[in-house]
Amino acid sequence: MKNQLLQALNWRYATKKYDPSFALSEEDKQTIETVLQLVPSSYGLQPLHFIWIEDQELREKTKTIAWNQQQITDAAAVLVLCAKNELTATDLDQHADLMRDTRGMTEEQIKGFRNHLHTAIGQKAAAEVKAWNGKQAYIALGQLLTACALLDLDATPMEGFDPVALDRLLNLEKDGLHSVLICPIGKRAADDHYQHLQKVRKPKKSIISVR
């Protein structure tokens, strides 16, 4: 398993050109969705939402918003990683309720955690909560990229787009969401020369130390 993981991570790269004839299987799509469901998040709150963009016209409009990056229309799938704009008292209570009911706890047992959520998060400034939620999307992205590599799927993480325009296009405001990242998923084109380039990484000793 260790070798499989390292081989997958060495194999993956931010694919620049996709094979438009490749289709994502339903099995792989379901696996990716389960991976996203299992993504870790602070307090387990999962303040994220994931949108598959399958409509071709919507893909074309998204491509324009993303500086005409061809991967968005050529990849087998396009996933938008979104975060909640806020975490209300209701959100916090619903999470505590879900934890209590899933684990068969009593209200007395969950009360401390519930109170802590309201203290630690409920008193944060709105802008701080929105930014904090957005950071959770990067945790999801890391897990998504690794999962795709292990599934022999290519993926391209993208911050290069106009988030305000994408939020408007997808009407995210009505759902209390904002876009954070876009990730096309599929198979690399045979003539994407980037796949043959040596991976450039700093040596371990320059990025890892012991104190």
Question: How would you explain this protein's 3D organization?
Answer:
With 211 residues, this protein is of the alpha+beta class. The chain has a single domain (2-87, 122-191), classed as NADH Oxidase, CATH 3.40.109.10. 47% of the residues lie in helices and 12% in strands. It contains 9 helices and 4 strands, in the order ααβααβαααβαβα. It has a 4-stranded antiparallel beta sheet with strand order 1-2-4-3, sandwiched between helices. Helix 3 (56-65) packs antiparallel against helix 8 (163-169) and helix 5 runs antiparallel to helix 6 (107-120). The model has no long low-confidence stretch (mean pLDDT 98).
Average predicted confidence as pLDDT? 98
Number of helical segments with 4 or more residues: 9
Name of the CATH class: Alpha Beta
The separation of the N and C termini measures 30 Å
Give the strand order of the largest sheet, numbering strands 1, 2, ... along the chain. 1-2-4-3
Q: Quick one: biggest sheet? A: 4 strands, antiparallel
Instruction: Give the fraction of residues assigned to helices.
Output: 40-55%
Find the CATH topology: NADH Oxidase
Low-confidence blocks of residues? none
Number of strands: 4
Could you state the order of secondary-structure elements as H and E? HHEHHEHHHEHEH
Shape: globular
Which structural category do the helix and sheet elements fall into? alpha+beta
Q: Provide the CATH superfamily.
A: NADH Oxidase
Radius of gyration: 19 Å
User: Strand-residue fraction?
Assistant: 5-15%
